[in-house]
Amino acid sequence: MRVAILGAGPGGYVAALKAAQLGARVTIVEDHEVGGTCLNCGCIPTKTLIATTDLLARTRELEAFGIDLNGSVVPNMPNIISRKNRIVGTQVKGIRSLLKSWGVVLKEGRGILTAPQAISVTAKDGSDETVVADKIIIATGSRPALIPAFPFDSRNIISSTEALDLTEIPKSLLIVGAGVIGCEFACIYRELGAEVTMVEAVGRAVTTEDIEISELLAKELKKRKIRLMTGVTVEKVEVLADGVHTFLADGNELIVEKMLVSIGRTLNSEHIGAEAIGLSKGSRGEIIVNEKMETNIPGIYAVGDITGGMLLAHVASRQGVVAAQNCCGGDVSIDYRVVPAAIFTSPEIASVGLRQHQAEQQGLQIRIGRFQFRGLGKAHAIGEIAGFIKIISDEKTDRILGAHIMGPHASDLIHEMAVAMQNNLTVRDVAQTIHAHPTLSEGLMEAAEDVHGEAVHVQGKALK
User: Fold this and answer.
1) What is the pLDDT of residues 160-206, one digit of tens each?
2) Could you say which of 271, 415, 437, 457 is catalytic?
3) What residue ranges do the domains of the chain occupy?
4) Could you tell me which residues are beta bridge partners of residue 5?
5) CATH numeric code, 157-263
6) CATH number assigned to the domain covering 2-143+266-327
7) 437: annotated active-site residue
8) CA angle 286-290-295, nearest 5°?
9) pTM of the model
10) Does domain 341-451 have CATH number 3.40.190.150?
């Protein structure tokens, strides 16, 4: 079986490795660098910067932990960016090594579908060749959306890609869009010392999350002196000698050193030959697939952002595994019921399953349990007490419908709830599982207990 993959991001390279493990002869085509957006200008570099700013934030709390610091701690942006680049480079080398170890052939160049079983590859040196395969997986990903209303110049008005390589901290930064990416960059650059303002067209930040999470995030951003303006749009932008002038629909004018536009992504479905071979696309340019990741053309699959679903690296990887298995004779489908997600703000946010408003819109009878991190000894010990855990359950079956966490290590804690949901455990199953003390995960047990009003470490009403 010959399998060709177009794109070596988290969907494509994982599909390549899985197909090779299953015995296929695999060729993968990549125009930029293995790892895709996630590794090169997304997940990994942003989390590397966040690790730096988290450490910087902790140094400002040393006195509270009984530690005296003689001198000052100052961020060195060239060194911070250099460390980020080294980490990305190490990961890139790791993926290349994995591909080589499994016999995957990497073709570096621009790939275009020319037939249901052929990809034309133009290499960096201008030479052309054709890769012929029995099955093809498309994994070309997405990129930051460039909005005509914003005159991008990669210097004054930038996207998330340029924001990862700034070697000087801007005195002031306006972020247009308070979604996941915008909020993460707001926390990064505020901690580095920039004055940060966020403008969001809708009524709350991170609209993908539970409303209570959005409300608490707004309060935490305010504590960090990040200005969040919701329900307002940008009408006009001008770059003048004294900075970027932004005129808002409410009449306000903002003048900042730099503007970061973070309002969506564009799917990389154009210029890949999709139309020429008759692939079906949706209204946003997404390639339409079924639960087996099959397109309308037999033998061609698509995975990751290009399919227009959840734009998450781990979803792309799972889709890649499913597509590879089906390419190699399998008959498997992907299950989206339990997909955890994390936002690396300060504090972190994580979620899985239904939000409360979604459950209510579906007419479900629900019970809700909550527990504050300030009720945990471990949270006090590490000095991170902001945030809470929220569990939503079905009142009739006691099954967990969703879980939402904002607080320390939320991105790690959420997976206990994901495992519970994947295996159809009940709230009582979680509540009756002994959790080690002192840990942050005790909060999950307490929130589960609170669903039935049985949490021990919450304020009660004394019996009279």
Assistant:
1) 999 999 999 999 999 999 999 999 999 999 999 999 999 999 999 99
2) 437
3) 2-143+266-327, 157-263, 341-451
4) 28, 137
5) 3.50.50.60
6) 3.50.50.60
7) yes
8) 60
9) 0.94
10) no
